[in-house]
Amino acid sequence: MLDIALKISLALVMIAIVLNTYRLSVGPDMPDRILALDTMYVNSIALIVLMGLWLNTKTYFEAALLIAMLGFISTVAVCKYLLRGDIIE
Fold first, then answer.
1. Extended beta strands in the chain, E state
2. What is the tens place of the pLDDT at every residue in 62-72?
3. Predicted structure pTM score
């Protein structure tokens, strides 16, 4: 039963990543593209955690934490660049 739920979850997360890729490439303006990229980070973290559950390894969870930290920092940096034109003051 858990195997079926994991496969369905993996498929739904992959569909969400594809839709985020579409929004990232077609987005009407830059804030929409940044939001799509941030959402893609969250979806990739979910995908990695689901793969870790499916393969029953702990290494994937460490990779998910690393991607979460990098995703947060990069989103803050890009937003700061759009608002002020400079990342470091």
1. none
2. 999 999 999 88
3. 0.82
